[in-house]
């Protein structure tokens, strides 16, 4: 099962962008192979251009990406989060985000970090000043909110997908049953035609037996019985056709009801 088989990239991108705009928290999504699913939202130059833009800074960030679970502090002192996207116990991807300061920064500390990773300290501090500051509680709540929203959305799409599959199978069975009913109707109609011909033959036999007089009396009795049986068969065939029509109507009603529920 793949994430983008259940939900479109556009839907994920929209909810991610709305989340980042509303909270100021950076976010992006990846699939279970680690490939990007959405474009990053609200990512900061401090993290992307300066910290990850250096060899040492990138290594430190990648270590945090690999080891970080839930909401955590990165090597630079910012808060990040990682939340799995799970459907029926299977991990389909993850939401990564954060890039938020939990308190006003210690500029001297960050100047030392800049020197360690080989970035101009003044540029680093200017970029740091643009990083949003939220309380740790707010950051954790925002991460939990994003996780809940995305997982609810993806699982909802999964359920809808399963229902569409079930309905498709039911539609196929209804169509097949309807086809069989039509075939029965046609076969019964053919038998009715044969029965009517038998009636005519029985009638002709009775006429010929009457013409034969006493010698044809026994044959006349047989012909009469054939006529009765033929008439009875015709009545049964007519009843079968009527029942087949009722079944066909019931199947159509079931199909219409399923389609209506799916639309609702």
Number of strands: 4
Name the poorly predicted regions. Answer: none
Question: So what's the overall shape?
Answer: rod-shaped
Order of helices and strands: HHEHHEEEHHHH
Note the main sheet: 4 strands, antiparallel
Strand content: 5-15%
Q: How much helicity do the residues have? A: 55-70%
Rg over CA atoms: 39 Å
The CATH class of the largest domain is Alpha Beta
Number of domains: 2
Examine the coordinates and then state which fold CATH places here, giving the name of the CATH topology of the largest domain: Beta-Lactamase
Give the neighbour order of strands across the main sheet: 1-4-3-2
Number of helices: 8
- CATH architecture title of the largest domain: 2-Layer Sandwich
Kindly report the average pLDDT value. Answer: 80
End-to-end gap = 26 Å
Structural class: alpha+beta
Can you summarize this structure?
With 264 residues, the protein is α+β, with helices and mostly antiparallel strands. The protein has 8 helices and 4 strands.
What's the structural blueprint in terms of helices and strands?
Layout: H1 3-6, H2 9-23, E1 26-31, H3 45-51, H4 55-67, E2 70-73, E3 79-87, E4 90-100, H5 107-117, H6 121-128, H7 136-212, H8 217-263
Antiparallel strand pairs: 1-4, 2-3, 3-4
Helix pairs in contact: 2-7, 3-6, 5-6, 7-8
Question: Can you tell me about this structure?
Answer:
The chain is α+β, with helices and mostly antiparallel strands and 264 residues long. It has 2 domains: 3-134, Beta-Lactamase (2-Layer Sandwich), CATH 3.30.450; 172-257, Methyl-accepting chemotaxis protein (Helix Hairpins, Orthogonal Bundle). 69% of the residues lie in helices and 11% in strands. It has helices spanning 3-6, 9-23, 45-51, 55-67, 107-117, 121-128, 136-212, 217-263, and strands at 26-31, 70-73, 79-87, 90-100. It has a 4-stranded antiparallel β-sheet, covered by helices on one side. Strand 3 and strand 4 form a beta hairpin. The mean pLDDT is 80.
